[in-house]
């Protein structure tokens, strides 16, 4: 096959073919769909043509490739066939037709897809599926392929780093690859808001609304929670969603919290956003983390044995971005030291990523109990014998003994009491817990909250 730069024969043959097509096609069609094509490679069996973009090439393949092949075979003696590539797949630096803007079908209003920059690795193939994200992944794939199994509106919520952006961008990648003529808009809520403000300033709100209403088959808006307090933006997006959903268009929205925790969001807007499937992405379980670590290691050409993968999976149990950071750190350190990764190296990398849990002490527990029971430190350390003060004080003493190694005397000093008072408090709370009273449930709840604070 000839290399671009040595394609004189290729150009000459294609020029002849274009002339023959110009005679057989209406002038408008020839100028629009044939003239922009460029021959980039040719040998005895194949002629490769490139167009300005995916949409253009998809249209040419569907409507003109058979006609082109007839001309190619006639002029090559039946030994050669033509194939149409996109400009991204060809070695052509830039085609002339690209510089003049995207070509459109005659009579069809031109549109420009509103897209954030896409991460090349955020595809369905690179997304690790587990129980924590199976429903979200399945729903996104269905929307990308036009499958109505999960409806046409999807709301995904999760904390940061669990894959919301990965899935939404996977939808965009899939649509651009398989249905490039789809009118798609992918942006953040903040970008939507900024663009709307621009439209108000320029008195072009009609054009702004029409772009999302009439020139949109799929709308993806991320970080809906950032619209809290932005009433005008909520109203505008609500109107657009109403039209798109009723028209059967596809919509994906993401947020950092569940819909019922979107305080400051209009109830009608909230109801509209949750008209379809609402699903949450939870932190990946151990098995999924293992799969993610293996894939990330393979992508980075990093060899990790099972024991190191297990160590990473045990320690990195939240944000998936930490896994990526750990793999990159291990790779860098291993390359710098010119040694394969071992437990010591991996542990050193992990120490920079994982913040040591906050150690509970008596003062911290005292502050925690004060905030839970809405009483001040002065009241907890006072001589008051009111039940509203003595009961929280006894719980604080019990929890301090449970979660710290402080002595009875040290605990007593925190509350201006002696060790015998602390011992009495511990026995009182222990007795109440053993009776399975409401105190038992209250203590269990407080313990869970303390453990949660310690693990953050």
Describe this structure in words.
The protein is an alpha/beta fold and 456 residues long. It folds into four domains: 92 residues, GMP Synthetase, Chain A, domain 3 (2-Layer Sandwich); 167 residues, P-loop containing nucleotide triphosphate hydrolases (Rossmann fold, 3-Layer(aba) Sandwich); 68 residues, Helicase, Ruva Protein, domain 3 (Orthogonal Bundle); 94 residues, Chromosomal Replication Initiator Protein Dnaa, Chain: A. Helices cover 55% and strands 10% of the residues. The chain is built from 21 helices and nine strands. The strands form two sheets. The chain has a six-stranded parallel β-sheet with strand order 4-6-7-8-5-9, with helices on both faces. Strand 1 and strand 2 form a beta hairpin. Helix 10 packs parallel to helix 11 and helix 20 packs across helix 21. It is elongated. The N terminus is likely disordered.
Beta fraction: 5-15%
Number of domains: 4
Mean pLDDT: 83
Largest sheet: 6 strands, parallel
Structural class assignment? alpha/beta
Distance between the termini: 59 Å
Strand arrangement in the largest pleated sheet = 4-6-7-8-5-9
CATH C-level label of the largest domain: Alpha Beta
Total strand segments: 9
Count of alpha and pi helical runs: 21
Shape: elongated
CATH homology superfamily of the largest domain? P-loop containing nucleotide triphosphate hydrolases
Please bin the fraction of helical residues.
40-55%
Order of helices and strands: HHEEHHEHEHEHEHHEHEHEHHHHHHHHHH
CATH topology of the largest domain: Rossmann fold
Instruction: Examine the secondary-structure arrangement and name the CATH architecture of the largest domain.
Output: 3-Layer(aba) Sandwich
The rounded Rg comes to 32 Å
Low-confidence runs (pLDDT<50, min 5 residues)? 1-8, 88-112
């Amino acid at each position: 096959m000839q290399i671009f730069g040595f394609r004189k024969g290729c150009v000459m043959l294609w020029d002849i073919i274009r002339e023959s097509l110009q005679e057989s096609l209406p002038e408008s069609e020839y100028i629009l769909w044939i003239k922009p094509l460029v021959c980039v490679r040719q040998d005895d069996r194949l002629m490769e043509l490139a167009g300005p973009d995916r949409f253009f090439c998809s249209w040419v393949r569907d409507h003109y490739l058979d006609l082109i092949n007839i001309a190619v075979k006639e002029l090559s003696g039946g030994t050669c066939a033509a194939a149409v590539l996109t400009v991204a797949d060809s070695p052509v630096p830039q085609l002339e037709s690209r510089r003049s803007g995207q070509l459109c079908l005659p009579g069809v209003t031109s549109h420009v897809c509103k897209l954030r920059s896409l991460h090349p690795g955020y595809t369905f193939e690179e997304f690790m599926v587990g129980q924590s994200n199976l429903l979200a992944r399945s729903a996104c794939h269905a929307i990308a392929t036009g499958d109505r199994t999960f409806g046409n509106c999807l709301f995904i919520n999760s904390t940061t780093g669990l894959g919301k952006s990965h899935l939404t961008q996977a939808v965009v990648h899939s649509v651009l690859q398989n249905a490039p003529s789809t009118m798609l808009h992918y942006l953040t809520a903040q970008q939507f808001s900024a663009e709307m403000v621009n439209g108000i300033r320029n008195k072009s709100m009609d054009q702004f609304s029409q772009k999302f209403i009439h020139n949109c088959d799929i709308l993806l808006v991320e970080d809906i929670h950032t619209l809290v307090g932005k009433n005008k933006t909520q109203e505008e997006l609500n109107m657009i969603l109403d039209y798109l959903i009723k028209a059967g268009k596809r919509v994906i929205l993401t947020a950092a919290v569940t819909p019922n925790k979107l305080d400051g969001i209009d109830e009608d807007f909230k109801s509209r956003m949750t008209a379809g499937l609402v699903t949450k992405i939870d932190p990946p379980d151990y098995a999924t983390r293992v799969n993610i670590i293996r894939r990330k290691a393979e992508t980075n050409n990093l060899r990790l044995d099972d024991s190191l993968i297990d160590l990473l999976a045990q320690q990195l149990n939240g944000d998936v971005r930490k896994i990526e950071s750990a793999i990159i750190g291990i790779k860098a350190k291993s390359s710098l030291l010119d040694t394969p990764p071992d437990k010591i190296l991996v542990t050193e990398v992990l120490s920079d990523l994982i913040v040591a849990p906050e150690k509970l002490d008596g003062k911290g527990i005292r502050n925690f109990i004060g905030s839970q029971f809405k009483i001040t430190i002065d009241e907890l350390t006072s001589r008051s014998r009111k039940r509203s003060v003595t009961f929280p004080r006894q719980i604080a003493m019990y929890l301090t003994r449970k979660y710290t190694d402080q002595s009875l005397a040290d605990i007593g000093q925190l509350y201006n009491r002696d060790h015998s008072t602390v011992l009495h408090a511990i026995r009182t709370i222990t007795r109440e817990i053993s009776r399975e009273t409401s105190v038992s449930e209250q203590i269990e709840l407080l313990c869970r909250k303390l453990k949660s604070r310690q693990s953050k």
